[in-house]
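User: Can you help me understand a structure? I only have the sequence.
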Amino acid sequence: MKKIMIAAVLLSAGVLSAQEAKPKHEIQDQMVRSTYYYENGKVKQEGFYKDGKVHGTWTAYNADGTKSAMGEYNNGVKTGKWFFWTGSELNEVDYADSRIAEVKKWSHNAVVSNK
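Assistant: Let's start by predicting it. Here is the structure, written out as tokens:
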């Protein structure tokens, strides 16, 4: 019984000391600018909401702070060009009518287009 009590105390202490990275929301230009964080305090995602839907530029980052994705939303729908970084490769994705219209992969000065 004593071991169970010690384990319970240690578990609750660990839960209480764990920091939860809470998002930050602020009003800006009649929209809500939201920033989400990793537990290490670095930015995970940032962008805007308008009338409860994602809207405008959104950017995502890896836990080390490097950019992983960037693109535009229009009232909750992906639009235009989106960019996704993976290692040394950049993927450019064009959206039209809420669907992927074209994908280009950029890698060491080479471009591969997939329509």
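Now, to help you interpret it: Confidence is low (pLDDT under 50) at residues 1-19. The helical segments are 2-17. Let me know which part you'd like to focus on.
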